[in-house]
Amino acid sequence: MNLTAPAQIANYIAGTLQAPLSNKYMPNVNPATGETYSQTPDSDATDVEAAVAAARAALPAWSTTPAEERFKILNRIATLIDEHLDELALAETNDNGKPLTLSKRVDIPRASSNFRFFATGIMHFSTESHSMEDKAINYTLRQPVGIVGCISPWNLPLYLFTWKIAPAIAAGNCVIAKPSEVTPMTAYLLSKICIEAGLPAGVLNILHGTGPGCGSAIVAHPAIKAISFTGSTRAGRDIAAVAAPMFKKLSLELGGKNPNIIFADCDWEKMMRTTLQSSFSNQGQICLCGSRILVQDSIYERFRDEFVARARKLNVGDPLDENSRQGAVVSQMHYDKVLSCIDLARQEGGTILLGGQPATLQGRCANGLFIQPTIIEGLGPNCRTNMEEIFGPVVTLQPFSTEEEALQLANTSDYGLSATIWTQDISRANRIAAQVQSGIIWVNCWLLRDLRTPFGGVKNSGVGREGGWDALRFFTEPKNVCVEL
Ligand code: NAD
After folding, report:
1. Can you list the residues of the chain whose pLDDT is less than 70?
2. How far is the CA of 236 from the centre of ligand 1 (A)?
3. Which of 83, 425, 465, 476 falls 20 to 30 Å from 149 in CA-CA distance?
4. Do the bridges between strand 35-41 and strand 25-30 make them parallel or antiparallel, or are there none, so unpaired?
5. Please, are residues 225 and 146 in contact by the beta-carbon 8 Å criterion?
6. Shortest CA distance to 208 belongs to which of 180, 236, 227, 235?
């Protein structure tokens, strides 16, 4: 199987690679070079209709295929992803701008883990039974929802795309999936892998296109019974407005503005090392990045000076160079947005301690979209810089004195995705973990992921949980059967 990136991407419908019905395409740009290197289908409602027809035809057989058979196919997909790690990682980096070392170490291995995890999960999935003593027995059937929609963003392209698709098809659904139009390549390559793995035609249909042109047609289609969406809070709101009155099942994984709470008694070296990662990994374009760094006042100056000194050394460079720690941001639109957020921080009275500017590279990357790691201080909790998601290599520092003040600052946000707590005092860690308004808390670590745990946010960070049984429950409908004895 040849998994080099083609000059033209195709949709995957009914088990075959197809051009969009309108024959319209959009340019796909490598953000590290500025070069348009492929064309992406600009699919619309007619392509969604064709995908739904394929899914409808496949559903009766797939939804009754024994779990062990589904396990085998998903496992084959995982193995093929592993075998093609190098091509997939290169495609991800060229599409997204992230360092190749990161694609190889995190993105692509996690995509195969997603398939392997839910392949084995479906073999162990079980349902409840409720006995009414000698009167009756209830048992719960969990049946596939039917045809479901999976829509994902550009920041962890194959990683998040497969995080939705794998549980959906493991549970016996047929899927209409749309990756981000900004990073379509690895989803296209996944189509080829699914064909090679023997996934029956129509079980997974991958459409490429924009949110308004293609995503919204998936959300609005009456035959699609559940929508699993990861992306911005703005799009999540639009999706809920259409899907909720149609009574579709909804899982919305949205934006974040995560606090990183650092107490004076933390393990300094581990905290420093991890805070650099949680601030700037993937150019700060991870929904779980800690963008509001809250530091106890007794260590504030020491932290600030050392953090700035270490961040200054992060090498912004060609994503293909293994010495680069920071790659390009994903697109011109996002580059402009991040720089305008930095300008806003200046207008709001923030002091830029580091960065605040584009980074200019030479040679192959001279036209790339690079931004220096940026650290800002001097802004209060209620300004726009500290309230709105920037989703780039930009963090702010705020001092606090007491535990109560730390909590208050942490919870001054409309978002509630994740939080990180740094302290050696285990009682304090547990107290704060219980009171921070976030769906995911890390204590003395960051982005340590066990795929069985519930994943998702509160407040404007979304509704529903992914991961483990939560995902398999989302993609199935419980039906109670009561049998009188
Ligand atoms: P986005 O909302 O612009 O797009 C996400 C996906 O939705 C894309 O495929 C897009 O084409 C599609 N889309 C957009 N509008 C749509 C509509 N009205 N109907 C249907 N589909 C639509 O987000 P993005 O810029 O690609 O990604 C960045 C955002 O994703 C950030 O806000 C980030 O925090 C969030 N994110 C959240 C998580 C999480 O797990 N909570 C993980 C990663 C990223």
Report:
1. none
2. 7
3. 83
4. antiparallel
5. yes
6. 180
Going by alpha carbons, the residue nearest to atom 26 of ligand 1 is 153
Q: Distance between CA atoms of 265 and 470, rounded to whole angstroms?
A: 36
What pLDDT, on a 0 to 100 scale, did the predictor assign at position 477? 98
Per-residue pLDDT tens over the stretch 162-196: 999 999 999 999 999 999 999 999 999 999 999 99
pTM of the model: 0.98
11 to 182, 204, 293, 383, 386: CA distances (angstroms): 15, 11, 42, 43, 40
Closest by CA position to 18, among listed 56, 54, 61, 60 = 54
Looking at residue 24, its pLDDT comes to 98
Residue whose CA is at the smallest distance from ligand 1 atom 34: 255
Tell me if 391 CB under 6 Å of ligand 1. Answer: yes
Please give the pLDDT value at position 384.
98
Cα torsion at 353, 441, 170, 120 (round to 10°)?
110
Ligand 1 mean position to 254 CA, how many Å? 7
The residues of the chain that CATH labels 3.40.605.10 are 11-254+461-484
Residue identified by tokens 């707590």 is: 421
User: In one letter, which amino acid is 117?
Assistant: F
> Contact, 475 vs 454, CB < 8 A?
no
pLDDT given for residue 113 in this prediction: 98
Provide CATH code, domain 11-254+461-484: 3.40.605.10
- Ligand 1 contact, 153 CB (< 6 A): yes
Q: What is the pLDDT of residue 223?
A: 98
What's the CA gap between 249 and 244, in Å, rounded?
8
